Structure formats: structure tokens, C-alpha cells
Amino acid sequence: MKNTVKKNKQRSITLLVLMLNLFILSNCVQENRTSARVEVIPVFAVNTIMAVQGQIQDYITFSGDIVAGSTVDVHPDAAGRITELYVSVGRRVNRGDRIAAIDPSRPGMTFRHSIATAPISGTIVMVPAQVGMMVSQAVPLARIAGGGGLEIKLNVAERFISRMAMNLSCEITLDAWPGEVFFGSISEIAPTVDLASRTMEVRVNVRDTESKLKPGMFAKVRVITEQKENIVKIPSSAVINRFGEQFVYVTGKDDENPEIDIVRKRIITPGIQIDGMAEVTGGLAPGEEVVVRGQTLLDDGSRVNIIERVTPLSVN
């Protein structure tokens, strides 16, 4: 009997010790899990780009037709019937060359033929007259494009008039010559606005040293309204607008651990934004590395893992 009681006491003590050890072990595991949760710091994957110093342009795009810089219509000196045409479209003529012969004779009266001549030297661009047609002094026989070069006629909407000025540089592209860029400048601005269309006529002269352009071609014109040199620029996607602030995240090293990359919030002053580029007039220096992708969830001091360093923007 005594042995049975003794054995029961030993079993109780052993069970109590076992339960105490399990309790201590459980607390240790819980403490380790809590510590592990506290020490986990998120690291965000980002792409970055270097801010560069260079040029940025603001512009407005228009479309228009290429026309001859100076054109003159040839009119007959007398009314009558056209008996002969001496020119055709594309022919080069000099001042005084014959254009057409007109017979001013009437029933019962015979007159000498009147010869219409070219008032200027140039190229025939239009011949509306035909042999046998009756014409008067008000009817043009032909149109001559003089040596004034080529121009592009633009109709500028009223809201853009304030940004037009003489000699603004222009970049010109055409479907006829894909991939090529021609250059010119504003040479003429109309003094009035058309009441019907609410547009103002602007003419752009074209530099075409290789004679690739022809009157009548359709052109797209980029008028450079503002050009800045030696400014800091970054992709527009790097700029964050939040709660009335515009800022970027600039990368750097953690003060306590230089091997860790972090970001710092930097308030900036933006300027021109066009074609996916943003001018920065304050708050950022050339050569600083900013986050261009993955910045949505970032905060000041966030740890980052730089996945890719994007090629910087072109200087020009």
C-alpha cells in the first residue's frame, strides 16, 4: 500500500514538472514569434533614374498646307478667245515669256491677237485656262510661283494667339518624307482674326535646300514657343502630386547601416511638363537619383531594393 502511494506521488511530481517545462517552452516560443514580427521591416522594389541637366522645349503642334512664298496670277490684256497656250504646269518661265494668245475679234471685226506674258520669273503651278475658252481681263490664265521660297499656311486657334511671335523656330514633318525633319520659322502673322473660324493666319517659311518639298503638300508643324537651357529634368512619372504638394523620392544610404538603400521625400518646384519630361526649378540637383517606378507605397525613410537603374533622359 505504501509503495502504491509513493509511486503515485512520484508520478504527480513528474507530471507537474513536465507541465511546468511545457509552459516555459510555450512562453519562449511566443516571445520569439513576437520579436520576429517586430523586427520585420518592409523593403520595396523600385526603379530609379538620374536627374540630368539639359534642354527642354515647350511647343504647339499645328497642321497646314505648303504654298509658294510668292505667287502671281497672269491675266489677259484684252477679253477674247484663247487660241494658244504656251505653258504647262511645272514649266519654268522668265519675265516676259509668252503664256497664252487671245483673239479679241468680234463678229464683223478682226483684231490682232493679244499675247499675255509672264509678269515675273518662276514656275507655273496652275493653268486654269484652256484653248477655245472665252476669257476676260478678270480671268486668270495661269499662276506663277516666284522665287520667294516655300511657306506653310497655318490657321492658329484664338487661344494660342498670345503664344505666337515672329521668328519662332519650327520643326516640320511630312508623310511624304517619313522620318525626316525640316526646319523653318514664323515669317508672317496676320493682323486680324477671321470672324467665322476664330483663327489667325500664320505663315512659316521653310528651309528646303534639297528641293524635296512641293506646293500643295500637307505638313505638321511644331512651333517652339519656349526653350530653356541648362535646366534640371526628370520623367514626369517620377513626380508625385499629393495633398497639394509635388515631390519626388530621392535615394540614399541608411545612416546606421550604409549597405541599406532608403529614400527621402523631397519637395520640388516644377516647371514645364511636356512629352513625359518635367522641368524642376527647385529642390533637386543634377546627378541625384530619384524613384521613377514603384513609389506609390513609399514614405520618407522607406527601405528600397533598386531593381533597375533606367537610362537617363537625353540632354537635348
Itemize the secondary structure elements and their pairings.
Elements: H1 2-39, E1 43-50, E2 52-68, E3 71-74, E4 80-85, E5 92-93, E6 98-103, E7 114-117, E8 122-126, E9 134-135, E10 142-145, E11 150-157, E12 169-174, E13 182-189, E14 199-207, E15 218-235, E16 240-242, E17 245-253, E18 261-267, E19 269-274, E20 277-282, E21 289-293, E22 303-309
Parallel strand pairs: 1-22
Antiparallel strand pairs: 1-21, 2-11, 2-15, 3-10, 4-6, 4-9, 5-8, 6-7, 8-10, 11-14, 12-13, 12-15, 13-14, 15-20, 16-17, 17-18, 19-20
Features:
Elongation Factor Tu (Ef-tu), domain 3; rod-shaped; four-stranded antiparallel sheet; 22 strands; 12% helix; six-stranded antiparallel barrel; mainly beta; conserved putative lor/sdh protein from methanococcus maripaludis s2 fold; 316 residues; 4 domains
